[in-house]
Amino acid sequence: LVAATAAAPAPFVLPSPGGEVALVHGVLSAPQQGDLALAARRFAESRREELGLGPADTLEVVAALGSRFGGSVHLAQHVGGLEVHGARVVVTFDASRRVVRLASSLRRATSTSLSPRLTGPQALAAAAREIDGALLDAHGQVQGGYAPRAFFRGSALHAGFLVWVPTLRSSQDWHAAVDATTGDVLWVEDRALHAVDAQVYDPSPGGI
Fold it and tell me: pTM score, two decimals?
């Protein structure tokens, strides 16, 4: 007697414009044992070439979310000890602890330049020059903070700093990216979201 078993549907695969995997959906693994965060990292690193990870690149867990329906683990790409800005992999598990989705924003770098020529305070000062009303302390120094990051310049990765600059207006939340190898300010953005037509209901619209 030969038992016939239905084959699982082939996973859906969506590539990124650069050819790296952006999304894979389907039953992608057997049930995983042990810590799901570690299992997620092992699974993602087993697909290094598809994701565009370099030989020395690593993935670090930044968040792990779970429920009775499954869970997801968020991983950040690191190159040369620097977190790559915006480079994330999300591994999703179903209630049986099988991997059912792999989503990625990783890109393959053609070269790296990871030796900074700017310090963090210099990057903070450079960003502050691009932002009106940057707060200064009693000594005239720019207030705020910074964190080392790697940023893409075209297809190359450069060392840099993600900078936060407070201003005289508490409603603003200015962040900037500074290339620490060239001194260029790559972008500046106010991350505070505002809505003039928002409404709040208690407990819900129309008392529903």
Answer: 0.84
153-184 pLDDT, tens digit per residue, is 999 999 999 999 999 888 899 999 999 999 99
At residue 206, the pLDDT reads 47
Rounded Cα gap, residues 66 and 39, in angstroms = 14
CA-CA distance, 146 to 43, in Å (whole number)? 32
Residue 85 Cα distances to 50, 118, 131, angstroms: 19, 18, 21
Q: Are 77 and 104 a contacting pair, CB within 8 Å?
A: no
What percent of the chain has pLDDT above 70?
A: 89
- Place 61 in a pLDDT band, splitting at 50, 70 and 90: very high
Q: Are 59 and 78 in contact (CB under 8 A)?
A: yes
Residue positions counted in the chain: 208
What is the rounded CA–CA span in Å between residue 99 and residue 47?
13
**How many Cβ atoms sit within 10 Å of the Cβ of residue 143?**
14
3 state SS of 89: strand
- The string of DSSP letters for 130-195 reads TSTTB-B-TTSPBP-EEEEEEEEETTEEEEEEEEEE-BS-TT--EEEEEETTT--EEEEEE-----
Residue 157 to residue 152: CA distance in whole angstroms: 5
Per DSSP, the residues of 25-39 read ES--SSPPPS-HHHH
Q: Half-sphere exposure of 29 toward its Cβ, with a 13 Å CA cutoff?
A: 24
